[in-house]
Amino acid sequence: MLILLPPSEGKAQPRRGRPLDLATLSFSGQTSPGLTHARARVLEALVALCGGDRDRAAQVLGLGGTQADLVDLNARLHSSPTARADAVYTGVLFDALGFGSLSPAARRGAATRVAITSSAFGLVRPGDRIPAYRLSGDVSLPGLGPVAGVWREALGPVVEAAVGRGLLVDLRSTTYAAFWRPSGALAPRVATVRVLHEVGGVRKVVSHFNKATKGRLVRDLLEDGADPRTPGALADELTRLGWKVELGEPTPKGTRLDVVVTEV
Q1: Which of 75, 115, 225, 228 is 20 to 30 A from 140, alpha carbon to alpha carbon?
Q2: Could you give the angle at the alpha carbon of 173 between the alpha carbons of 1 and 234, nearest 5°?
Q3: Which range is the signal sequence, renumbered to this chain (predicted)?
Q4: How far apart, in Å, are the Cα atoms of 210 and each of 46, 96, 173, 229, 239?
């Protein structure tokens, strides 16, 4: 099973640690085509942009006037200290998942079962050492173009190799889902999850509930240690763990699971 997470816009800045080394990251391609070349292209364009006109860089990145420090942060990417990705990414989903408080067995499972989508690095494992950065998935970088387009060209073989014969649990948001879409051959083993907040019989998609619930779902799956191989088996597993789940019909893009919650 491979669980694909979205990144967080906010990130904790490591205070100490060795600089970024692309060769040490997962999916770098030492033995097969990987992401190192695409990562280098994106980082080169991002660092060049942020090392120049700061106002222009802020405009391209969609930053406000009080966020000039994030431009400087990007300009220093090659020399900034790094930390584990599961410590760098913060926010509602990652707080609810709580990588740092997982049991030892669940933490070992996360190392091989979880991957985080990244505008700067394509895909990283929780233990990969990365610097803090600011680059949203809908940005187009000068000299490179949309970062989503770069990753669409590179991620397919990497993700499919990581899934193997298992189940892909896709928890990415719409922006990051555009980085890669599963092939028709993989679709029967793809489960996408939507979280619905139900109040008085009315169901809505609410961002906070969506992120927090996805974090808790992943935590429960990792702590339980089960390895469902189909969307139906995943729905059964989540139901056993106490979640209210409604299984949709298979489609050429996968099968959607609706998780219905009444409170966070």
Answers
A1: 115
A2: 30
A3: none
A4: 30, 11, 10, 24, 17
Both tokens of 255, joined, read: 């099968």
150 CB-near residues (< 8 Å, 6+ apart): 38, 41, 42, 144
4: enclosing H helix or E strand: strand 2-5
DSSP letter, residue 32: S
CA distance 230 to 166: 8
Q: What is the pTM of this model?
A: 0.94
Residue 58: how many other CB atoms lie within 10 Å: 20
113, 224 Cβ separation under 8 angstroms? no
**Cβ neighbours of residue 219 closer than 8 Å, sequence gap 6 or more:** 96, 97, 98, 102, 106
How far is the C-alpha of 119 from the C-alpha of 136, rounded, in Å? Answer: 6
Query: Is the CB of residue 176 less than 8 Å from the CB of residue 199?
Result: no
pLDDT single digits (tens) 40-87: 999 999 999 999 999 999 999 999 877 889 999 999 999 999 999 999
Task: State both tokens at 182.
Answer: 């599963």
CA–CA gap between residue 144 and residue 42 (Å, rounded): 7
User: Which of 20, 213, 193 lies closest to 121 in space, CA to CA?
Assistant: 20
Q: Where are the alpha helices (DSSP H) in 51-168?
A: 54-61, 68-75, 85-88, 92-97, 104-113, 147-163
Tokens in use for 81? 């200290």
H or E segment and range at residue 118: strand 114-118
